Amino acid sequence: MEVWLGFLGENTMKKENYHLHTTISDGKLKPEELIKFCIKKNFSTICITDHYFFPKGFRDWGNDFYSEKDYNELKILKEKYKDKIKVLIGVEFDWLTGYENWLINESKKRTYDYKLISVHFLQINSEHCPIDYSRELFEEMIEKIGSAKSLVKKYYQNLKNAIKTNCFNIVAHLDLIKIWNKNEIFFSEKEDWYIQEIEEVLNLIKKYNMKIDVNLKLLNEFNKEQCPSLWIIKKAKKIGIELLVGTDGHKKNEIDYDIKIMKKLSLTSG
Ligand SMILES: [Zn+2]
Ligand SMILES: [Zn+2]
Predict the structure, then answer these.
(1) CATH, residue 157
(2) Which is deepest, 17, 41, 188, 263, by most CB within 10 Å?
(3) Local structure of residue 182 (DSSP, 8 states)
(4) What does the pLDDT look like over 195-253, one tens digit per residue?
(5) Contact at 8 Å (CB) between 181 and 223?
(6) What spacing in Å lies between the alpha carbon of 250 and ligand 2's midpoint?
């Protein structure tokens, strides 16, 4: 990704955000409010990546996300603001065990600039449990499945299955499974089995020509570290995978970020 305009100095580095939510799903700002706010904050490119609606019967929340009307509104806004900001139309799909065919079908129904794929839910004993809901629930999941290692492996197995469908462009918050793993209390990222899981995922991302979402949201939350970890970012860069920064912003104070972070995360090309 070209983010340096080196000859003009650091202050003119291009600011981009490829992971944003609006009222189309669970965000607080309307799409047009978000676009106007991003113009004010000097973003050159943004991608609106609202959650796609969930399959009927899966849960009673989110069934009205991202309607056809919403999708058409984004197309109009993209055009309306094109002289001020590049607005890309994205979507965030959830990988759900048992609903694979539904998801593959739905992912092909519209054209998007970017289709993100996320694993937020893991199926344990026929129940879909959200990874990022609470530490208590996370511990319960570990207990049910037997060990943290089994849970982590299940997470990456889901992610690998999703990548192999070849339906998506960006892997969102690649190592979200570390969300409650502050100080490595559940597992160590330095263990061989974990490094191997990551390498398998990165190789698949490369094979299917996908990109990685460098998700800054956790920086402000429990774990205080972006997704993925820096060592994974470096490995991904080394094998030529493109990385796109996003804040996973759902409200005003989650949209802007300090451009210096790009340097810290080795995301500048200069
Ligand atoms: Zn997500
Ligand atoms: Zn998101």
Answers:
(1) 3.20.20.140
(2) 17
(3) G
(4) 999 999 999 999 999 999 999 998 777 777 899 999 999 999 999 999 999 999 999 99
(5) yes
(6) 8
Which ligand minimizes its atom distance to the CA of 117?
A: 1
Residue at 209 is within a domain? yes
Domain limits at 18?
6-264
Q: Provide the whole-model pTM.
A: 0.93
The ligand whose atoms approach the alpha carbon of 17 most closely is 2
**Residue 19: nearest ligand to its CA?**
2
Ligand nearest to the CA of 172: 1
CA of 9 relative to ligand 2 center, distance in Å: 31
Alpha helices in 24-176 (DSSP H): 31-40, 68-80, 100-107, 135-145, 148-164
8 Cα: distance to centroid of ligand 1 (angstroms) = 35
Q: How far is the CA of 239 from the centre of ligand 2 (A)?
A: 25
pLDDT band, residue 12 (cuts 50/70/90): low
| Residue 220 token pair | 């402000």
Greatest Cα pair distance, the chain, in angstroms, is 57
Distance 264 CA to ligand 1 centre (A): 23
DSSP result, 215-256: E-GGGGSTT-S-BS-HHHHHHHHHTT--EEEE--B-SGGGT-
What is the torsion angle, in degrees rounded to the nearest 10, for the CA atoms of residue 66, residue 69, residue 75 and residue 78?
-70
From the CA of 140, how far away is ligand 2's center (Å)? 24
User: Cα of 215 to ligand 1 centre, how many Å?
Assistant: 9
